[in-house]
Specification:
Layout lengths: L2 H10 L12 H8 L14 H10 L12 H10 L12 H10 L12 H10 L12 H10 L12 H10 L12 H10 L15 H13 L5 H8 L4 E2 L5 E2 L2 H8 L2 H11 L3
Parallel strand pairs: 1-2
Helix pairs in contact: 1-2, 2-3, 4-5, 5-6, 6-7, 7-8, 10-12, 11-13
Protein name: DUF4116 domain-containing protein
């Protein structure tokens, strides 16, 4: 067969390259232009063939011997997932991939704590690809999004505190919620009160006691006090938690707490 006949045949069936002993560059280009992954069947491809194959299928990098850092960098910048096909990627390549997606952590062998933190900062759900993440990494993930709790087995109290502070809806992600834990979490995030289920048996008096403790403390948390005051779950007789917050602040609140309360109530 002539080269022209080979090219016609390869245009119709590029996989035929596997059966041609010494294909010309033109034959090779005809194939990889249609399917870059066919690079694996080409021995000693020219730079032009390699570039054509990679432009069609970046994953074909796995079939390139000793690729340059420049070439790898260009590919990773286009698609972070290419990191999967790079052996021993440089720090620069890793940083480039993680800057695009925290999910790139899945392709990094034994990532450092710093890389893990960077990953969950970019994508909180990258946590699912980190084996046995430390509490520090878990905390960073839930601070980005409470839904990171989905990827944590037996989260610590500190992690749960960070999660409910990020969003009170985190309460819905806690599978082992007990009465004691719910009361503890209310001490750090007032908005979770509306997410405490009736089945736990938390009483109004128990909630009152925590509120009194908070408003009478010399070391007040101004944000917590504001959250209490603006908490719609606390209200009159028809509320789930019929507590007269203003009366409690008037009776037990410190001067600083009363000042915050006045400021909040004057907004309305």
């Amino acid at each position: 067969m002539t080269e022209e006949q080979y090219i016609t045949a390869l245009t119709n069936n590029p996989h035929g390259i596997r059966n041609i002993p010494n294909p010309t560059e033109t034959m090779q280009l005809t194939c990889v232009a249609q399917n870059g992954m066919l690079l694996q069947y080409i021995k000693d491809p020219t730079q032009k063939v390699i570039e054509t194959a990679l432009s069609q299928a970046p994953r074909a990098i796995q079939f390139v011997e000793n690729p340059t850092e420049e070439l790898l960098s260009a590919l990773v910048e286009k698609d972070w997932a290419i990191l999967e096909y790079i052996n021993n990627p440089s720090d620069s390549l890793i940083q480039s991939a993680l800057a695009q997606s925290g999910w790139a952590i899945r392709y990094i062998t034994n990532p450092s704590k710093e890389l893990q933190l960077e990953a969950v900062k970019t994508n909180y759900d990258a946590l699912q690809y980190i084996k046995e993440p430390s509490e520090v990494v878990q905390l960073q993930a839930v601070q980005e999004n409470y839904l990171a709790l989905r990827y944590i087995n037996a989260p610590s109290v500190a992690v749960l505190e960070a999660a409910v502070k990020q969003d009170p809806q985190a309460m819905r992600q806690i599978t082992n919620l007990s009465k004691e834990l719910a009361l503890h979490l209310f001490k750090v995030s007032a908005p979770i009160l509306g997410y405490i289920p009736n089945t736990l048996g938390v009483t109004v008096d128990e909630i009152k006691a925590i509120i009194v403790e908070a408003v009478s403390s010399d070391n007040i948390d101004a944000d917590y006090i504001r959250e209490l005051i603006n908490n719609k779950a606390i209200g009159g007789r028809q509320s789930k938690w019929p507590i007269d917050l203003l009366s409690l602040i008037d009776a037990y609140g410190t001067r600083a707490v009363k000042k915050i309360a006045v400021g909040e109530y004057l907004k309305y």
